[in-house]
Design goal:
Helix content is 19%, strand content 27%. With 268 residues, it is an alpha/beta fold.
Amino acid sequence: MTGSREMMFNVDFDESKFELVEVNVKIKKLDPIFDGYTIVNITDVHLGQWLSPKIFEGVVDYINDLNPDMITLTGDYVSYILDKYEKPLEHAFKRLEAKDVKLAVLGNHDHWLGEKKIREILKNSDIIDVSNDVYTLKRNSENGEKILNIAGVDSYMLGKDNLNQVMKRLPKEGPAILLVHEPDFASKSSKTNRFALQISGHSHGGQFIIPGTGTTIFRGSYSTKYPVGKYKVGNMLQYTSKGLGTNVFWMRINCKPEITLFTLKSEH
């Protein structure tokens, strides 16, 4: 991770094994009142696989130290076992601290393991589920109320997405950011010309990034087009995080687990 902050973490958390990726996003028509607004995103926790509950508690400490305005979570919080990890996941999620709000969408594994239970964990952790919904952040300024919209769609891979519903609920005013687990949804969402940024995960960055290229040869379903990092899709920026955990293969090569820090920039 970057930076020189002196932090005290759980002894199971090794900062050197994680990467903080900082992304500046210039957004058209973003009111200056939101200039410098920070969003920390995490995705693909897959708790109980490579990422243990103790290590995840250290990740939470690290995120809280960043003091973000908003925290977003983009799915796959568990892999194949839920019952054993319900309490640790909820405990960690409850400890996440954002100045404004914590928002989330579900991934394919969350549906496979128990959509109802995952949504209950999010609710109990004061995390708003924006799957196929919209959250509007409001700020009062000298020129009246200004807004920033954060929308979400449910798992594209499982056909749970409902972009039409999102578009109906999305206010006409104010820029919009989209949360969706699967990055290849960008081919669809970009065509609306409504979203400045889509934040996704799902791919784990392929868990192997080819040195010197910044990309991967391992591209799973629904992450073949946009497997890792930044892409310009139409007028929209698509960002695909490498995620925190692993699934079947507990190995990462040149592909550290990622915490992403977005800083929004207005056009002055």
